[in-house]
Amino acid sequence: MSALLYEYKATDAAGRSQSGRVEAPDRSTAIREVRAKGLTPVSVIERKVRRSLLGPRVGTAEVGQFTYEIGTLLEAAVPIGDGLRAIAEQESNPAVSRMVQRIAQRVDAGSTITDALREHERVFGSVYIETIAAAEKSGSMRRALEQLAENLEWQAETRRRVQQAVMYPLAVAVALGGGTAFLLAFVVPKFTSMFQERGVELPTLTRMLDSVGHSLNGYWWAYLGGLIASIFIVRSMWATPAGRITIDRALHRVPYIRTMLRALGVTRFSRVLGMSLSAGISLIDAVEQAGRASGRPMLASQMQQVSRRVRQGSSLTDALAGVSYLPIFAKRMLAAGEEAAELPRLCGVIARRYEREAEHLSKNLGTLIEPVLIAALTGVVLLVALGIFLPMWDMASVMR
């Protein structure tokens, strides 16, 4: 659900002014979404989304739980307003409780569920809300909520699994960096000073390590500033469509990471495409929506082109021919689904196929990175040890 937030001002068919917010990967997509609401956009402006670093937030797990509870209310035929207030009272997260209370107020005032949720589009995302809107019109709300909840639960579980896989290697990398900096900044200079006092000529490796150590001691603030600046630059790039594609392409050049990201992206794409089509969303909008929901900027960009070709009259099979991101298996399944008019079912087949692959790859990520880190640690220790012991051996030979 990663997208930019845009505020729009528009006019409806009667000439009345309307305003609101939409999430989209770029401004042109935001304009199309405004027009899809039957409005004529007057201005569409990107707004920075401020996220609090302190206090409770509404995450994917909370949205998934809320979706399950809404589906249960519909199944039990409980009045939506009363049920939402009961959910809000039992919710331990204050941010979720306030949000649900606001939704209940809107529903009690006569708004549809879609309109009530649209006020919190930053939390739910455009994919979620447009799916609910289509399901509300087609009368398939319960099925759509069930699919949305399953999709959100899968996303939360996948994120947790990937975080667990990278936590240990990340901790080792931080410890390795900190230990190396300490050795170079404090240990190596002390030994080099001792060797120089005794007239020992320092080898090239020792002089290089000593220079790095003095640099760390004297200009630590520059290294720290460079690290912070690098993080800021990457975050700034990710905030723009072109920057996200650049970073995504860089990540896809790393062999194992490329395979895992592609499996995750194809799984999300297939899940959302099948869910959107089942909810009654048109193929053109569903393809573009699924591309945005995939979380992979490269796939989202290619799906915009596919949507454009289908809108111009091409079949989905022909439009997918130029898509390099989707594997051949996925393309063949989508082509078979279009021919047999069973796209939602075959989207589920694709999702299950690549979900298993993504799960396997994410579980083995830590196992793959661990030997690389061990090799790096061994190399660093060897370099520092050689930098210290080479002049020590020279000093011992002189003393003889």
- Could you tell me the strand content as a percent range? 5-15%
SSE arrangement, N to C: EEHEHHHHHHHHHHHHHHHH
Q: Count the beta strands.
A: 3
Largest sheet: 3 strands, antiparallel
Kindly state the percentage of residues in helix: over 70%
CATH architecture of the domain at 256-363: Up-down Bundle
Give the CATH superfamily of the domain at 256-363.
Type II secretion system (T2SS), domain F
CATH class of the domain at 256-363: Mainly Alpha
Report the span from N to C terminus.
71 Å
Dominant shape: elongated
Radius of gyration: 28 Å
Number of helices: 17
CATH topology of the domain at 256-363: Receptor-associated Protein
Widest beta sheet: strand line-up:
2-1-3
Low-confidence stretches: 49-55
How is the topology of this model organized?
Elements: E1 4-11, E2 17-24, H1 27-36, E3 40-47, H2 60-75, H3 80-90, H4 94-108, H5 113-118, H6 121-138, H7 141-197, H8 204-218, H9 220-238, H10 241-251, H11 255-279, H12 283-293, H13 297-311, H14 316-320, H15 328-340, H16 343-363, H17 365-399
Antiparallel strand pairs: 1-2, 1-3
Describe this structure in words.
- This protein is mainly α.
- Among the domains are: 4-47, Ubiquitin-like (UB roll) (Roll); 60-146, Receptor-associated Protein; 256-363, Receptor-associated Protein (Up-down Bundle), CATH 1.20.81.
- The protein contains 17 helices and three strands.
- The protein has helices spanning 27-36, 60-75, 80-90, 94-108, 113-118, 121-138, 141-197, 204-218, 220-238, 241-251, 255-279, 283-293, 297-311, 316-320, 328-340, 343-363, 365-399; strands at residues 4-11, 17-24, 40-47.
- Strands 2-1-3 form a three-stranded antiparallel β-sheet.
- Helix 6 runs antiparallel to helix 7 (141-197) and helix 8 crosses helix 17.
- The N and C termini lie far apart (71 Å).
- Mean pLDDT is 81; it is low at 49-55.
